[in-house]
Hints:
Blueprint: E1 3-4, E2 17-22, E3 33-38, E4 44-52, E5 60-66, E6 73-74, E7 88-93, E8 105-110, E9 116-126, E10 129-137, H1 141-148
Amino acid sequence: MTSTPAAKKTYENDPGSGLLFFEDAAASGDPVLSGHAKTPAGENIVLAAWYQELQGKKNLYAVSIAAPGSPKLRAPDAGARMDRKPGTGTLYPEEQKTNPKGPDVTGFIVTPTGVTYRLAGWFRTGGRKEFYSLKLTIPTPREQREADTPPGEPT
């Protein structure tokens, strides 16, 4: 399991927004995405994500979350359901987008302080970088049930 230093730079995001950048040459075990966000409550967080191909299940990004300045972000356990523990989350690629303006990835994260947010990301290209523009929202009651339900079980 490889770890990556948490972001050292400070970034100003509007509450409920953030960026998740594709890493240029991620070595085996390194995150493929890393970035930062500000929750709707104003909490700054840093994020790193590892792509996981799960046999017989939906592929996902396993996300680790920490406060800025935290020493390390570690890869979550392979194949584990991440969106229930503080400092973890999951993002699923949208395989059947019906609205071209809809998000390209969606999921849930739990901040290190234990607050659950719905996370949506739109693929963007800026300069020479590819990234997801993020939106963090408080989940609706239905979305919260979805976040608390293991994959494949009815909500």
